[in-house]
Amino acid sequence: MLHVAEAARVSVATVSALINGTATVSPELSARIEQAIRDIGYKRNAIARSLKMGTTRTIGLTVPHITNPFFTDVVSVIQQAFDRAGYAVMLCCTDEDLNTQDDQIRLLLDRMVDGLIVARVGDGAILKRIVADANVPVVLMDRLCEGVDTDAVVLDNQRAVFDAMSYLINLGHRRIGYITGTSDISPMHDRMTGYREALQAAGLPVAEELVRSGNFHEIDGYNATMQLLSLHDRPSAIFSANNPMVIGTMKAIRDIGLSCPEDISVACFDDFPWSDVFQPQLTTVAQPVQAIGEQAANLLLDRLAGNRDAPPRKLVLKGRLMIRNSCRPLGAAVHSVSA
Amino acid sequence: MLHVAEAARVSVATVSALINGTATVSPELSARIEQAIRDIGYKRNAIARSLKMGTTRTIGLTVPHITNPFFTDVVSVIQQAFDRAGYAVMLCCTDEDLNTQDDQIRLLLDRMVDGLIVARVGDGAILKRIVADANVPVVLMDRLCEGVDTDAVVLDNQRAVFDAMSYLINLGHRRIGYITGTSDISPMHDRMTGYREALQAAGLPVAEELVRSGNFHEIDGYNATMQLLSLHDRPSAIFSANNPMVIGTMKAIRDIGLSCPEDISVACFDDFPWSDVFQPQLTTVAQPVQAIGEQAANLLLDRLAGNRDAPPRKLVLKGRLMIRNSCRPLGAAVHSVSA
DNA sequence: AACGCTAATCTAAACGTTTCGATCATGTCA
DNA sequence: TGACATGATCGAAACGTTTAGATTAGCGTT
């Protein structure tokens, strides 16, 4: 900018005024300055501007896994929304690791991001402190955090799983395996509650042997399913509480020589774009990814626009049960195939 | 830092020296400063540091679509690699739009990213100029760019498609539909060349009616497939040159009342994590996503480490044909089903 | 002619670091 | 004892912006 000012024989203040339109500058000087900008190929340095202004027009976004199609879709929507608003997005994947998340959020705050969207991981204590210290707006997404009282957009997970389980129960299933992620995050907790409540509402026992837990990865779903299928009294259906794990479930079913839905019914949380096309067409609980992403972005953009003092807003969206053909009705002959 | 200095009754220079280890500071002062840092909860401001140092420890990454599993996987690997190296990643999705890409790259450069990894979109002219102007290292990924002579990691697309086509031809297919993305980017061009060469090598004609082009989205694959399937002399196999489009292909096949592989064989570029499990199990060309991401990251990290003057390095990786069950051998009764 | 008002422009400080060179005490050596 | 190297610390400039406040010129009023 100094070079531009010299070339145009004006002060840097005038150049700044012209660029930002913060003051009127005469036509002559405007012309000289614009010419100089073109000649020199000047681009304003956003870092210097950020330092002075205290704002970076950049937000931080952390998710557990970007390869999980649910997060991929949401990230994509958020990215678009902030792109439109002229913000850049710094993306971090925490890989479901607490320390990683911790480090990454600090990294983002050090870089003076203007706001944060967090699909958190693990215990909320540290996150709580970080959020309290940093005075940037934070939006929680997908996962709430006890003690962190801030904007959030989540699903009614309990209801969604309740509905899915009720569907299975209505089909005649009585022993339904349930594969959950680590239960220290709110959706896993709520989904599990939905599972239990649906069973109880139908007067069915909650057999602990039917509940298995894993760490969100395909391999965890595989192992959990293997355990479920080797039970003496095998479940007739399996519900997987997240979508990477259901791939593992399907692989285990295949490897053990069974097939879905003939031998075992499968449903899961989170939809896939290809669910309609490949066999078995999985019955899933679809989250409104577009809405989740947009709402999270809107909540944060609203804060960034200056609405700092409004009380925390918590949006709860509804899931939708996509009934396809991976669950079969159980007739008189209950899970007839012998292992 | 000023506050820390005052609290510890030292100068800011000493605080800086201690934090960065750039000079020895006495045990007494060290203790005082460290205490002050803890008391105040001081965090170094990375923006101010960037301004002074001329480096942000942030890189920019632009991809056409993050929802495409291929890019998702690669982004994930790159993200992890830079995370380990202490860099932040600014992610941009260009949505296959030239202007968007242009804007985003400028945005990234304004923010003084230390380097750029680009899976480019469209014509290379503007990218070429931007890359020339910006004196940050750039690594091209997945897609080369004519006239941009920089580090790159790409696939041997031509060979990969040649192999896939040869496989189909060996199965007895003679009329093979081909669905490509817009051909102004190198992989699409190279893949098409592989298609033509395989046909020619087998002494088969290249029927232009069998080649359809779309814009990388599922709907484009759907439309292209609809056109192919309504041809008088329908192809017995379809190869889709990218993976979102193959979902559209499968939907079109379903909607038209045919089935794969009985009525029509399908193969495509890019693997899916679930390809092994759902029916039909798609035969695909798998890209070494892990290697692509790691190599791209390594190339850039090497430049960032100071190796600026080495001549541009171009890495060409090999694809792998994953033969599953979505393509059937053509016996005596050639594509028998009548439309 | 003196005055005040407005519009245009400029000067200089500030944002929070890093770093060069200066300062100063201390100990060593001739 | 004086010269000098050494090590620790500091002062101040610089990075490239923004912006408050000062300055100047032009013009209309009285």
Q: Which strand order spans the largest sheet of chain A, edge to edge or round the barrel?
A: 2-1-3-4-5-11
Mean pLDDT of chain A: 93
Class based on secondary structure composition and strand pairing of chain A = alpha/beta
Q: Please report which band the strand proportion of chain A falls in: under 5%, 5-15%, 15-25%, 25-35%, 35-45% or over 45%.
A: 15-25%
Secondary structure tally: strands of chain A: 12
CATH class of the largest domain in chain A: Alpha Beta
Low confidence ranges of chain A: 332-339
Largest sheet composition of chain A: 6 strands, parallel
* C-alpha end-to-end distance of chain A: 77 Å
Assign the CATH topology of the largest domain in chain A.
Answer: Rossmann fold
Helix content of chain A: 40-55%
User: Most extensive interface, residues per chain?
Assistant: A-B, 52 and 52 residues
Please write the string of helix (H) and strand (E) elements of chain A: HHHHEHEHEHEEHEHEHEHEEHEE
Number of domains of chain A: 3
- Oligomeric description of these chains: homodimer
Annotated CATH architecture of the largest domain in chain A = 3-Layer(aba) Sandwich
Helix count of chain A?
Answer: 12
- Computed over alpha carbons, the radius of gyration of chain A is 26 Å
Q: What do we call the CATH homologous superfamily of the largest domain in chain A? A: Response regulator
- What overall geometry of chain A do the principal axes of the alpha carbons give? elongated
